[in-house]
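Researcher: Here's a chain I'd like modeled. Treat it as a single chain, no partners, no ligands.
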Amino acid sequence: MAEQTTPIDPAGPPPGDPAHGIPAPPAAGDRQVIRDALGVGIAVGLSGFAFGATAAGAGLTVAQACALSLLVFTGASQFALVGALAAGGNPFTAAAGAFFLGARNAFYGLRLSQLLALPRAARPLAAHWVIDESSAVALAQRGGRHTRLGFFVTGATLYVLWNVTTLLGALGAEAIGDTGAWGLDAAGPAVFLALLAPMVRTARERVTAAAAVLLGLGLLPVLPGGVPVLVAALAAPAVLWAEGRRRPRPSEESPR
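Model: Modeled as a single isolated chain. Structure tokens:
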């Protein structure tokens, strides 16, 4: 009996054809990562207009507003700082609240340092770009190459655009008039909450978030500006302590 053979296509299988077990070329994956990173960087970077205008409305000069974006570069902390100053809070209290709010980036860095595996010379630059958006894009990737690509494209896009729009927002604050009347001071926190909301998945995280909101809003009328943010940070250890109290001790567990 004659041996049956499958006709051979002289052109060969198309690149990235799953039917032939050939993976898609890396360039296709790179383009998708860059698209996602640019989308996040541009969307969030435009809120620098709001920060620049809000900072100018809080009494900061254009140079001070730009220095915050260049050197601090963590939107939620920047908005917290100028918001506390605008409310008449003590500068040291306002700075402390912004510092503790920005401390979350250190925890992102602990995870990203393992995934990015950067040379020592590149680490200071990378550390400055460890923020919510760059961390979210990087951690959503699979493989070190795409993780690094997503991180740096998001970080570079957002850093450049955030600083340019901060300058333009601060310069245009006088033309806008009362920045509070436009609600621009809420733009930064709104963006931060939109990024944070999908990460709140477990019951513990939901309870912690709810407790922080109640503490922050409940103490806002009675404490100086910037202090409610510091107190709201106590929600996390309080929830962990309460959860630990509910767990039975090993001596109280029934024997198997």
